[in-house]
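Support request from a user on the community tier.

User writes: "When I paste my C-alpha cells into the form, the page sometimes reloads and wipes my input. The last time it worked, I copied everything first. Here is what I submitted, just in case something in the input itself triggers the reload:"
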C-alpha cells in the first residue's frame, strides 16, 4: 500500500459520502442567496455594482469565513481522526506503510475533495447573477474572472492554510472537539487583527496577522475608487501577497511538525493519564474486596431531585475540567484582556475612560461569540457524552427519567457558564482597577449585562440546541444545524423578516448610558425574554419526549415510545409554558402592532414613495415663512411624554398671494395633534392627515405679500408600550434631547422622500439628485436649515421634573417651581433670544451639575452628568481658545453666553444651536486623553461646534450642492487652526493623517458619485475630512492670514442681515471667489485642483542616501511624483505636475517624545515623475521624504517618508 492508494481510498470515501454533497449544496445555496437578496447590497450599493470585483471577492471570503471554515474542519480535521474513532487505526498501522505515505494520502485525498467542494462559492454566485429578477442596473456585464479569480487567489490558499492546520490538529490530538477548538483559534486571530485595524499605523500589521486574508483584502483595497471596485481584479500583490505567503509558510511548518510528531503507536493517552488510570483500576479492585454497604432503594420525586443535583454538579465539573472548554474560555477572556489593555479607539485613535460599560463593550466578543460557540459545541457534546464513551446502554437502563438526564446536563452547562461569567466580571473589575478606574466600577451593571442579558440569551439558545441535537440524533449534523440556524437568523433582516415575534431570542438590553442607565429598553427586553424562554422550554419538553434511550434511534420509534414520557407533570409544564408563550406573544403583538403601526423596512420605503407620489405636486406652491416662535413645552421624563402648546407667526415673503397653508406634523404613532388653528378664516382639508399627517388649510381670503397670520398648535407626544425594533432615544428618563422636527413644519417636506436610487426604482420612482444645483433659484432662496423660515424671533418655556434642568437656545429669563396640571411639583424655565436666530432649536433636560466661567464678558457653562468631570477643563479651554481665535480672525461672537449640555450616548455626536451645544456623552465627557500621545478630541469637537456659531449661524448657506463646505468644512478647518495653536506641526500630521484616511476610505463607500468639495452633496467624507484637509493645505500655501481674511470678507458679505435684505443665501462659489481674490495668480490653480475638481497625488520616496560632510549630513532623496484628476466614478487621467511641495528630514525620536522633530522642512518645486533632491542637515537623520505632514491628497501616504537604512 502506497500514498496513491490511500489517496484514492480517501477520495472515493469522500466522493461517496452524502455529507460531501450536502456541504456542496449548502455552500451553493447560501452563495446563491447571498447575491440574490439584500445581503450583497451591504457590500456594494449605488455606483459600486453588485457583481463588481471587490464586492464579489469580499463576499467570497466572508462565505468561506462563516461556512467554508466549518466544512474545512469537517473534511480535513476528520481525515485522520476517523481512523481512531472507528478503531481502524490498528489495521492501517500494522500494514507496511510509511508515515509520510499515510499522511500524504489522507491529506491530498481530503484536500482535493475540499477544493472541489469550495467551487460551490463561485458557482452559486454566478448562477445567482443570471436570475431574471436581478436588477440589471445594479449589475455589470458578466465576467467569469470576477468570480473565479477570488476562488483561485483567495479561497484555495485559505483551504490549504486552514485545512492543513485542521488536518495537523486532528492527526496529533485525535479528537474532533480539539479540531473544533482550533477553529476558535482562527477566529481569535481574525478578531485580534480587527482590533489592530482601528489605528492607521497598525493596519498593515493587522492585515498580515489575519489568517483568512479578509483584513489583507480590505487593507489592499481600502482606498479603491468606484471604478476600481467595479473592474479591477484582485491580484496577489503587496500586502495581500505577503499575507498569503506568511500563512502558507505557517501551514507548511505545521505539516512538518505533524510529520515529525505523528506516531503509529496506539495508546490510551499520555503517560500521566495511563498512570492515573492504572491507579484508579487498583483502587477499584480494592473497593471490590470491601463489603458493600446496605442501601435502601427509593424511587420518586425526592430521589430524582437528588439525582438531578448530583448529576448537575457532575456535568458542570465535566465541562469546567474539559481542556477545550478551558482553552476557549481562557482564549476568549484573554481576547478581552487584550482589548481592555489596548484601548486605542477607532475614532482618531481616541481612548475612553475604563467605565463599566466600556469594559462590557470590550467583553462583547467573549459573551456574544465565544460563549455561544462553546454552547454550540458542549450542548452536543453533553448529549452524546455517554454514547461517545460507550456507556449509554448502562446509563439508559438506570431508573432515572429522561428529564433528569437532560435537565442535569442543561443545568450543568448553565452553571459552567455562570461561573465563567463570574470570572469575566472579576477580570473586568481588575482591568478597571489597573487602568485607574476603581471609582467607575458598577457592580449592578456587570450583573445586569452578564447574568441577565448574556446568560439568559445563552440559556434560551441552549434549549434550542438540546432540542435540535435530540431531534437529528447526529452530533455533527446537530452542530451544523445549530450553526446554520445562527447564520440564517443573522440574514433574516435581508429576507424581510424583522418582527421580534419571528426572530428567535431577539431580546437585548440595548445600549447602557451613565446618564440614563438601561432606561426604556428593559420592558421590551423582559417581554421578549419571557416569550422566547417559554418557547425554549416547549422545545426542551420535546427533547425530553424524543430522547434516545437504548437502541431505538429512529425518529418514528422515538415518537411512539415518547408518548409514555408525556407524564402529567410534563404536560402541566407544557401547558403552562404554552399559556405563557401565547400570552406574552399576544402582549408583544399588542404593543408592536396595535399600539404602534408596525411596518417592515420595505413597507416603510413604500410609504415614503407614496408620500412623494401623492404630495409632490404641492412642493412648488408658495408658502409663508415662520418669523416668530413661542412655545410652552411640558416634559414628563419618567413616562417619556411631552406636550407642546404655542404659536408661529407666518409671513408671506413671496410676490404672490397664498391661498393654501400646508402643514406637516411629525409622522409618528406617538404624536397626537390636539389643535391646529390659524388666525384667518378658512377650513382644513384633512384628506392627507391619516396617511401622511399632512394638513391643508384653505384660506377664505388669500394671504397677500407682506401679510402675516398666526398658527396655533397644541401637541401631545405620548409614549405607549414599546415598538418593534429601536425605541425613541430622543425623549428619555434622564437626558432628553430633541429638535424642532417634532413641531409643525410649513409645506411639503423633501426630507421624507426616498434617496437611494435603487430603492426609488424598486418603488417605481425615477432617480433624483441628492441636492439642488448651485444655481437653482429655489435652493438659493432657502437655507440648509429648511424652507419654512429664514431667521426667527424665539421664546420657549419648558416645564420638567424638579430634579432636572431644562435648556433651550436663548437667555434664561425666569426659573421657578410650581405645579403641573396633575398637581405634582414641576420646575419651569423660560428662555428668550434677544435677536433673530436660525429656525433650528433644541429642547434638553437632565439631572445636571453645572460648571460656569465668565470669559471676556461671555458666560461659559457646561451642564454635565455627576461624575463626568474628567474633561471639563479641556472643554472650557477649547471654548476660550476658540472664541479668541474666531473673534480675532472671523469677527465678533454674536451672543453673551455659550453652553454645552451632555446627553446620553445613544447618539454619538455634538450639535450646535444658537449659543447652545448639546454634546454626546461619549464624544468627550468620558474620553481618556494622554496629552503626550493622544489627539485631544474633547478639545477638537468643542472647537468645531463653537465654530458653527459663525459658520452655520452667523452665515447660513443655501440649500444647494456644496453647501456643507460653507458650514462643516469651515467649522472643521477652524477647529484645526485652533488645534494648531496647541500643537507643533509634527503633531498636526497625526490629525491630518486621520482626515486623509477618512476621506480616502469614504471614497470607497460612495453610494452614487464622488463630487468635488465645492459640489459636495451630504457626503461627510468630503465636507468634513477632505474639506478640512484642503483648507488646511490652502492656508499652508497662501498663508493663514490671507485665508482668514477671505473667510472674514465672506462672513461680512453674507451674514444674516444681508440675507434678510436680499433673500438669497450664499453658495460655495461665493466662498471660493473670496479665497481666489486673496490667492496669488501662481497658486490659483490649486483652487481649481483641490476645491473644484477631484485631484489626487501619488508621492513616494524611493531611495535615500546619507553622506557625512564634516559635522553635517547631506541627505539625497529620489522622489516619485504623479498627479491625476478623477471623475465621479474614480476613472483617472494624468495631469501636468508643477507644484511646490514640502520636503522633510526627521531626527531620531527622542525618548518620551510622541513624534520625531523635523530637522529640515522646506518647499521644493516638483516637476518630474522622478526627481532627486539633496538637502543638508546638522544632525544625523532618521527618516526623510516628501510631503511628510500629509498636506496633499495622496492615495498612499505611508510611503511618502522612508526610514534611512
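"...and here is what came back when it finally went through:"
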Amino acid at each position: 500500500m502506497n500514498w496513491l492508494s490511500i489517496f484514492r481510498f480517501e477520495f472515493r470515501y469522500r466522493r461517496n459520502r452524502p455529507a460531501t454533497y450536502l456541504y456542496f449544496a449548502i455552500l451553493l445555496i447560501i452563495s446563491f442567496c447571498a447575491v440574490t437578496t439584500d445581503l450583497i447590497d451591504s457590500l456594494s450599493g449605488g455606483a459600486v455594482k453588485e457583481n463588481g470585483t471587490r464586492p464579489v471577492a469580499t463576499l467570497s471570503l466572508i462565505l468561506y469565513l462563516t461556512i467554508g471554515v466549518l466544512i474545512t474542519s469537517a473534511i480535513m480535521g476528520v481525515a485522520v481522526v476517523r481512523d481512531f474513532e472507528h478503531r481502524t487505526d490498528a489495521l492501517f498501522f500494522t500494514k507496511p506503510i510509511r508515515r509520510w505515505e499515510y499522511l500524504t494520502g489522507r491529506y491530498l485525498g481530503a484536500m482535493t475533495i475540499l477544493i472541489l467542494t469550495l467551487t460551490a462559492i463561485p458557482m452559486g454566485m454566478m448562477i445567482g447573477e443570471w436570475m431574471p429578477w436581478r436588477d440589471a442596473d445594479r449589475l455589470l456585464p458578466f465576467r467569469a474572472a470576477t468570480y473565479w479569480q477570488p476562488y483561485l487567489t483567495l479561497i484555495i490558499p485559505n483551504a490549504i492554510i486552514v485545512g492543513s492546520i485542521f488536518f495537523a490538529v486532528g492527526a496529533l490530538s485525535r479528537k474532533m472537539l480539539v479540531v473544533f477548538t482550533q477553529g476558535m483559534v482562527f477566529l481569535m486571530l481574525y478578531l485580534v487583527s480587527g482590533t489592530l485595524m482601528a489605528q492607521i499605523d497598525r493596519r498593515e500589521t493587522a492585515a498580515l496577522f489575519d489568517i483568512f486574508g479578509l483584513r489583507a483584502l480590505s487593507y489592499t483595497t481600502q482606498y479603491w475608487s468606484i471604478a476600481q471596485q467595479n473592474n479591477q481584479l484582485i491580484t496577489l500583490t503587496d500586502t495581500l501577497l505577503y499575507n498569503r505567503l506568511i500563512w502558507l509558510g505557517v501551514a507548511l511548518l505545521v505539516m512538518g511538525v505533524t510529520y515529525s510528531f505523528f506516531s503509529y503507536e496506539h495508546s490510551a493517552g499520555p503517560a500521566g493519564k495511563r498512570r492515573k488510570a492504572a491507579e484508579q483500576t487498583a483502587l477499584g479492585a480494592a473497593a471490590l474486596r470491601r463489603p458493600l454497604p446496605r442501601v435502601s432503594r427509593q424511587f420518586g420525586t425526592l430521589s430524582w431531585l437528588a439525582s438531578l443535583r448530583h448529576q448537575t454538579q457532575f456535568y458542570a465539573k465535566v465541562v469546567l475540567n474539559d481542556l477545550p472548554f478551558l482553552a476557549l474560555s481562557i482564549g476568549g477572556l484573554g481576547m478581552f484582556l487584550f482589548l481592555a489593555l489596548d484601548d486605542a479607539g477607532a475614532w482618531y485613535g481616541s481612548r475612553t475612560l475604563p467605565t463599566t460599560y466600556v469594559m462590557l463593550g470590550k467583553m462583547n466578543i467573549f459573551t456574544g461569540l465565544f460563549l455561544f460557540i462553546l454552547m454550540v459545541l458542549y450542548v452536543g457534546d453533553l448529549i452524546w457524552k455517554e454514547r461517545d464513551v460507550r456507556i449509554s446502554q448502562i446509563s439508559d437502563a438506570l431508573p432515572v427519567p429522561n428529564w433528569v438526564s437532560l435537565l442535569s446536563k442543561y443545568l450543568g452547562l448553565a452553571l459552567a457558564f455562570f461561573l465563567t461569567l463570574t470570572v469575566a466580571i472579576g477580570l473586568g473589575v481588575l482591568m478597571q482597577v489597573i487602568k485607574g478606574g476603581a471609582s467607575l466600577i458598577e457592580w449592578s451593571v456587570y450583573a445586569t449585562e452578564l447574568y441577565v442579558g448574556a446568560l439568559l440569551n445563552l440559556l434560551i439558545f441552549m434549549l434550542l440546541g438540546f432540542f435540535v441535537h435530540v431531534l437529528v440524533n447526529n452530533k455533527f449534523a446537530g452542530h451544523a444545524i445549530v450553526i446554520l440556524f445562527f447564520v440564517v437568523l443573522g440574514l433574516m433582516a435581508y429576507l424581510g423578516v424583522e418582527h421580534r415575534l419571528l426572530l428567535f431570542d431577539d431580546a437585548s438590553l440595548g445600549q447602557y448610558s451613565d446618564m440614563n442607565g438601561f432606561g426604556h429598553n428593559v420592558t421590551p427586553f423582559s417581554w421578549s425574554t419571557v416569550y422566547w424562554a417559554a418557547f425554549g422550554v416547549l422545545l426542551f419538553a420535546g427533547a425530553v419526549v424524543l430522547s434516545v434511550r437504548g437502541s431505538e434511534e429512529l425518529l418514528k420509534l422515538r415518537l411512539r415510545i415518547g408518548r409514555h414520557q408525556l407524564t402529567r407533570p410534563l404536560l402541566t409544564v407544557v401547558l403552562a409554558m404554552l399559556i405563557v408563550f401565547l400570552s406574552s406573544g399576544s402582549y408583544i403583538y399588542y404593543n408592536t402592532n396595535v399600539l404602534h403601526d408596525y411596518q417592515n423596512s420595505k413597507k416603510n420605503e413604500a410609504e415614503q414613495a407614496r408620500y412623494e407620489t401623492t404630495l409632490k405636486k404641492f412642493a412648488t406652491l408658495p408658502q409663508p415663512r415662520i418669523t416668530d416662535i413661542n412655545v410652552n413645552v411640558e416634559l414628563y421624563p419618567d413616562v417619556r411624554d411631552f406636550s407642546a402648546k404655542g404659536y408661529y407667526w407666518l409671513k408671506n415673503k413671496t410676490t404672490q398671494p397664498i391661498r393654501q397653508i400646508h402643514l406637516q406634523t411629525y409622522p409618528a404613532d406617538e404624536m397626537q395633534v390636539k389643535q391646529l388653528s390659524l388666525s384667518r378664516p378658512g377650513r382644513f382639508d384633512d384628506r392627507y392627515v391619516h396617511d401622511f399627517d399632512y394638513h391643508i388649510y384653505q384660506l377664505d381670503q388669500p394671504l397677500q405679500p407682506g401679510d402675516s397670520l398666526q398658527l396655533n398648535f397644541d401637541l401631545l407626544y405620548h409614549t405607549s408600550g414599546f415598538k418593534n425594533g429601536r425605541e425613541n432615544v430622543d425623549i428619555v428618563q434622564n437626558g432628553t434631547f430633541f429638535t424642532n422636527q417634532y413641531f409643525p413644519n410649513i409645506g411639503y417636506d423633501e426630507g421624507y422622500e426616498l434617496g437611494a436610487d435603487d430603492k426609488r426604482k424598486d418603488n417605481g420612482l425615477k432617480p433624483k439628485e441628492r441636492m439642488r444645483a448651485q444655481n437653482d433659484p429655489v435652493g438659493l432662496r432657502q437655507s440648509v436649515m429648511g424652507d419654512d423660515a429664514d431667521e426667527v424671533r424665539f421664546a420657549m418655556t419648558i416645564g420638567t421634573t424638579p430634579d432636572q434642568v431644562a435648556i433651550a437656545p436663548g437667555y434664561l429669563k425666569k426659573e421657578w417651581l410650581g405645579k403641573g396640571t396633575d398637581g405634582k411639583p414641576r420646575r419651569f424655565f423660560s428662555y428668550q433670544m434677544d435677536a433673530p436666530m436660525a429656525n433650528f432649536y433644541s429642547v434638553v433636560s437632565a439631572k445636571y451639575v453645572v460648571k460656569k466661567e465668565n470669559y471676556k464678558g461671555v458666560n461659559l457653562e457646561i451642564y454635565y452628568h455627576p461624575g463626568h468631570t474628567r474633561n471639563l477643563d479641556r472643554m472650557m479651554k477649547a471654548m476660550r481658545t476658540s472664541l479668541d481665535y474666531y473673534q480675532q480672525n472671523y469677527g465678533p461672537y454674536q451672543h453673551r453666553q455659550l453652553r454645552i449640555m451632555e446627553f446620553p450616548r445613544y447618539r454619538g455626536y455634538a450639535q450646535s444651536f444658537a449659543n447652545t451645544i448639546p454634546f454626546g456623552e461619549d464624544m468627550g465627557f468620558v474620553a481618556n486623553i494622554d496629552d503626550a500621545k493622544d489627539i485631544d478630541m474633547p478639545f477638537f469637537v468643542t472647537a468645531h461646534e463653537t465654530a458653527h456659531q459663525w459658520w452655520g449661524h452667523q452665515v447660513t448657506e443655501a440649500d444647494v450642492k456644496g453647501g456643507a463646505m460653507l458650514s462643516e468644512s469651515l467649522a472643521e478647518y477652524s477647529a484645526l487652526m485652533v488645534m494648531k495653536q496647541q500643537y507643533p506641526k509634527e503633531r498636526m500630521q497625526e490629525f491630518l493623517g486621520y482626515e486623509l484616511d477618512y476621506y480616502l476610505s469614504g471614497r470607497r463607500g460612495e453610494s452614487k458619485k464622488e463630487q468635488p468639495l465645492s459640489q459636495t452633496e451630504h457626503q461627510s467624507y468630503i465636507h468634513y475630512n477632505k474639506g478640512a484637509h484642503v483648507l488646511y493645505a490652502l492656508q499652508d500655501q497662501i498663508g493663514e492670514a490671507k485665508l482668514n481674511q477671505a473667510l472674514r470678507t465672506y462672513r461680512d458679505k453674507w451674514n444674516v442681515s444681508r440675507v434678510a435684505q436680499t433673500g438669497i443665501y450664499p453658495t460655495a462659489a461665493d466662498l471660493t471667489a473670496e479665497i481666489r481674490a486673496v490667492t496669488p495668480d501662481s497658486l490659483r490653480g490649486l483652487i481649481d485642483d483641490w476645491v473644484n475638481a477631484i485631484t489626487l497625488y501619488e508621492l513616494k520616496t524611493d531611495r535615500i542616501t546619507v553622506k557625512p560632510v564634516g559635522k553635517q549630513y547631506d541627505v539625497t532623496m529620489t522622489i516619485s511624483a504623479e498627479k491625476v484628476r478623477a471623475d465621479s466614478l474614480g476613472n483617472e487621467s494624468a495631469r501636468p505636475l508643477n507644484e511646490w511641495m514640502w520636503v522633510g528630514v526627521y531626527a531620531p525620536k527622542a525618548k518620551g517624545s510622541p513624534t520625531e522633530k523635523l530637522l529640515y522642512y522646506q518647499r521644493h518645486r516638483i516637476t518630474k515623475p522622478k526627481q532627486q533632491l539633496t538637502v543638508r542637515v546638522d544632525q544625523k537623520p532618521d527618516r526623510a521624504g516628501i510631503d511628510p505632514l500629509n498636506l496633499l491628497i495622496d492615495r498612499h501616504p505611508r510611503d511618502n517618508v522612508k526610514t534611512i537604512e
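Agent notes: The reload is a front-end session timeout and is unrelated to the input. The longest strand covers residues 1094-1109. Residues 69 and 1050 are 59 Å apart (CA to CA). Escalated to web team.
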